[in-house]
Design brief:
HEPN domain-containing protein; Four Helix Bundle (Hemerythrin (Met), subunit A); 4-stranded mixed sheet; alpha+beta; Polymerase_NTP_transf_dom; Beta Polymerase, domain 2; nucleotidyltransferase activity; HEPN_dom; two-stranded antiparallel sheet
């Protein structure tokens, strides 16, 4: 299902897979660097998963990573590169980690340290030139997604590059939905998630007017999260179980370039504003040190309104395409 690959045995004995498609991109000057980065990333994920499961007992003791698959723009070969200082859109590495047991998908319990280290490697240590996002699912969940024709998993199976495989077992054969089924699902997702985002945005405005600024920030975060979930579900019938709006944003921006311009990043102050909104999910509720001004909320609220407009257009275009396919 995933593309042809060539195994390499690393110093630690793990089989890392060098996919032939990666080497098809050698005409791009950055490909050798990217290959080294991907090797480092896979090693780091294994190291942190090993540390997180070191004292596991019972069924969890035998848990393991079955596959690590690169998907998205870096798998397709249409990624966008830019220096960290360039203040431009930059494609992330998107990875699907497939584990043997559903219990091992608990992000807080088993993957928080890996996520932390990858962020640090990019933003502080500068040993990675490309930011990394990863999602974790059990093999059963992935195969179930393929069996139910979820576009996200079908695209991973079609375009994904296997960076690591524990064995030769294949993913399930995808069973695409009929055009009518795909249309009905997209409409259902949009009808649920877009109004939900709008309700949280209305709560944000009400709470701002009352002066409950931290509560307003949390509700604005929820509006943002739901808008990104709306576009992901409408476009791919999938969104990860994750409240990290930076991660959701990255996945969504990989689907439609119109989403790239929603958040200005001309300077550090503008980037910090999005980071503050990201942190509001937890800190606005639980940290006594979290502070946000009415001016900051006004700026963020305007950006989320723009996000809502773009999400509406992107989803409307997708539904129109599905309607055309259903009539054909």
């Amino acid at each position: 299902m995933v593309q042809e690959r060539i195994p390499i045995t690393l110093a630690n004995g793990r089989r890392l897979l060098e996919d032939s498609q990666v080497y098809a991109h050698r005409h791009r000057s950055s490909s050798a660097t990217k290959q080294r980065e991907l090797e480092r990333i896979v090693e780091l994920i294994f190291d942190e998963f090993g540390a997180a499961t070191e004292n596991a007992t019972g069924r969890r003791k035998g848990a393991r990573i079955l596959k690590v698959i690169l998907f998205g723009s870096h798998a397709r070969g249409d990624w966008i590169d830019a220096p960290l200082s360039a203040n431009q859109y930059k494609s992330d590495y998107d990875l699907l980690v497939i584990v043997s047991q559903k219990e091992m998908t608990d992000r807080a319990a088993y993957w928080a340290k890996a996520e932390e280290r990858l962020i640090r490697a990019y933003t502080i240590e500068k040993v990675l030139r490309t930011p990394v996002n990863f999602i974790v699912h059990s093999l059963h969940e992935v195969n179930d997604g393929l069996a139910h024709g979820r576009v996200f998993f079908m695209e991973v199976a079609k375009d994904g590059i296997a960076l690591y495989e524990a064995d030769d077992r294949e993913l399930a054969t995808p069973k695409p939905k009929t055009p009518e089924q795909a249309l009905a699902m997209a409409k259902e997702y949009y009808a649920k998630w877009y109004p939900s985002a709008d309700a949280f945005h209305a709560s944000f405005k009400f709470l701002t007017e009352r002066g409950n600024l931290n509560e307003a920030a949390f509700n604005l975060h929820q509006a943002t999260e739901r808008l990104y979930s709306c576009v992901l579900l409408t476009m791919t019938s999938y969104t990860p179980y994750n409240h990290n709006i930076a991660f959701l944003r990255s996945l969504a921006e990989g689907l439609d370039s119109r989403l790239h311009s929603v958040w200005p990043e001309a300077n550090r102050a503008q980037r910090a504003m999005f980071q503050k909104l990201k942190e509001a999910y937890t800190k606005a509720r639980y940290s006594k040190h979290f502070r946000i001004s009415e001016e900051e909320l006004t700026w963020l609220g305007e950006r989320v309104e723009e996000l809502g407009s773009v999400v509406h257009q992107v989803c409307s275009d997708k539904i129109a395409d599905l309607e055309k396919a259903a009539r054909a």
